[in-house]
Design goal:
180 residues, alpha+beta, six-stranded mixed sheet, 4 helices, 8 strands, disordered C terminus
C-alpha cells in the first residue's frame, strides 16, 4: 500500500496523483496497514469521532484514547459539567521537572458518564490538570484537558490513563519539533 505524501491526501489507485481527504479518511487506511489489536491508539480532538472509535475498538480490537474539545460539543459539555462539579481529590498525581520547568499533572477518572456520553465504547472519561511553574521566572500556568478512553478501570488505572495521555503529547510534540 502506498502511503500519502502529506496528511490530508490519499493516493488515487492506478495514478500518480493524490486526492484531498479529511483526517479520519486518512487515519483509517494508514491504520489498516499495521497490527493494532490490543494497542492503544491516541488521537487529538480532530479525530475524536464516533466512526474512528467504532473502527478501532469494534473492528480492529484496539483501544482508543481521545482528547475531547469543542468539535464534539455535547461530549465536551457533559464531560466539563461532570468534572467542574466534582468535589474529590484527584485519582492520581505526578510531578516532574524538565526543560527548566516543574510540572504537576493531576487526573480524575470516572465511569459514571459512560452511558450518558452517546459515544461508542467509552470505558472511562477523564480530566487532566497540568500545573506548570517556570524555574527561572517563577511564572505559573494551569490548564485543563478532557478526554475519553475505551479502556475500563480493570484495564487501565488512573495512573495508566495519565501515562497514555502523556504519551500522546510526547509523540505530538516530537512530530511538531521535526516539522517545525
Amino acid at each position: 500500500m502506498r502511503h500519502p505524501k502529506k496528511v490530508g491526501t490519499l493516493p488515487i489507485e492506478g495514478r500518480d496523483e493524490e486526492k484531498q481527504t479529511n483526517a479520519i479518511n486518512t487515519a483509517i487506511p494508514l491504520l489498516d496497514a499495521i497490527e493494532i489489536r490490543g494497542k492503544t491508539i491516541s488521537a487529538d480532538a480532530l479525530l475524536t469521532q464516533r466512526e474512528l472509535a467504532r473502527y478501532l475498538v469494534g473492528k480492529r480490537g484496539a483501544h482508543d484514547h481521545f482528547t475531547v474539545k469543542g468539535n464534539q460539543k455535547h461530549l465536551l459539555e457533559a464531560t466539563v459539567s461532570y468534572f467542574d462539579h466534582l468535589d474529590r481529590p484527584p485519582n492520581f498525581t505526578t510531578t516532574d521537572g524538565d526543560h527548566g520547568r516543574r510540572e504537576t499533572r493531576k487526573i480524575w477518572v470516572t465511569t459514571e458518564l459512560n452511558a450518558l456520553l452517546n459515544f461508542p465504547h467509552v470505558g472511562q472519561a477523564f480530566m487532566v490538570e497540568r500545573l506548570t511553574r517556570d524555574n527561572k521566572s517563577g511564572k505559573e500556568r494551569s490548564d485543563l484537558a478532557y478526554g475519553i478512553t475505551s479502556k475500563p478501570p480493570d484495564l487501565a488505572t488512573a495512573q495508566q490513563v495519565l501515562q497514555d495521555n502523556r504519551g500522546h503529547w510526547a509523540i505530538e510534540n516530537s512530530c511538531h519539533d521535526i516539522i517545525d
